[in-house]
Amino acid sequence: MKNILDLSRSELEKEMTGMSAKKFNAAQIMEWVYIKHAEAFEVMTNLPVSLRETLKKYFVIERPTVEKKLVSSGKDTIKYLLKCSDGVLIESVLMKHIDRHTICLSSQAGCAYGCAMCATGSMGFKRNLSAAEITGQVFAALPDMDSGEYSGKFNVVFMGMGEPLANYDNFKKAALMLTEKKAFGISTKRITVSTCGVVPGIENMIRDGLRFNLSVSLHAVNDRVRDMLVPVNKKYRLEKLLTACAKYFAFNGDPVTFEYVMIKNVNDREDDLHELIAIISDIKIDCKVNLIPYNRINIKEFSASTSATIDLWRETLEKEGVICSIRREMGADINAACGQLAGGGF
Length: 346
Ligand code: SAH
Ligand code: SF4
What we know:
- The chain is α/β, with parallel strands linked by helices.
- It folds into two domains: 2-60, DNA polymerase, domain 1; 65-334, Aldolase class I (TIM Barrel, Alpha-Beta Barrel), CATH 3.20.20.70.
- Helix content is 34%, strand content 20%.
- The protein has helices at 9-18, 23-35, 49-58, 119-122, 131-141, 168-179, 199-207, 223-229, 238-252, 270-283, 307-319, and strands at 2-3, 59-60, 65-71, 77-83, 89-96, 101-104, 108-110, 125-128, 154-158, 191-195, 213-217, 256-262, 287-293, 323-326.
- Strand 10, helix 7 (199-207) and strand 11 form a beta-alpha-beta unit.
- It binds S-adenosyl-L-homocysteine and iron/sulfur cluster (SF4).
- Residues 115, 117-118, 159, 163, 194-196, 217, 259, 261, 292, 294-295, 297, 338-339 line the site of S-adenosyl-L-homocysteine (SAH).
């Protein structure tokens, strides 16, 4: 039995043709499952009875279930622990801002990339998430959004557990479903994909015409430090990564964001700052820098840069004309902040 939530729109349309049904039945089914949250084919009363019977024979409608929910003390962050049908646990986070909601999605259970500062990396890789398990995280968060009229009103960041571009096909399917009018209907501009630097994945997005916001976990300005913090750098060197970013910018036209976790005495020296400014000026594309205060995780001896250093970096970057923000960490008290998701902080 296939899970209907794992099919893209075109796959669903193909299935319809195979079942001698009409192409528009695919859109009707999508509306039932994504907008009306139908959990069974019987309720899809605008479909012919025979089609409903056939669908029942070959498909299930299956979403991960919400096992637990944790609300931060400020009530602005909610972390969800979801259970997949094989028992695998995944986490996602809803961040409520005054003017927008942002859902942080996981793309894999665990992660194979083993970045030195990341709790997800330290748990190792379990498996890729299916498209249904990715969009299922959005379903989990919908009841906690203030407005029932959610369509078009939330942002999605692929910044939870795992590396989205290492699970490219399912990430793509889920992200496109988010933009489908008959599903979640949000604009591509509301979707951000964060990558540790999987260069072929960035190239695939260009090939496939996926115009999302690109965030790159840079974290270091030379290969020596980056090899240590973000080991995938040994495979895709900094120069290659920056070239891929420039190509993506040429294709998309929107600024590329460089994320930079500030770790005391590791990547926050004055030389690093000047090198970062040089890199940005050399690459000649619109970009932004997002400085992330390091969040302590249990296993590593790193410590966070002082707020004076972080402020100095921001001021200097801005003086150089670089748009720079400091990430306001939300939900650190419930282990929901960047790098803290490890499926066990409940
Ligand atoms: N795998 C993707 C998506 C995860 S995003 C990526 O690496 O980009 C999670 C973000 O949090 C990444 O920028 C990651 O480098 C950062 N991060 C990891 N550990 C962190 C920590 N301990 N404190 C702050 N940020 C961290
Ligand atoms: Fe994986 Fe991203 Fe964590 Fe690195 S930072 S281990 S790529 S989730």
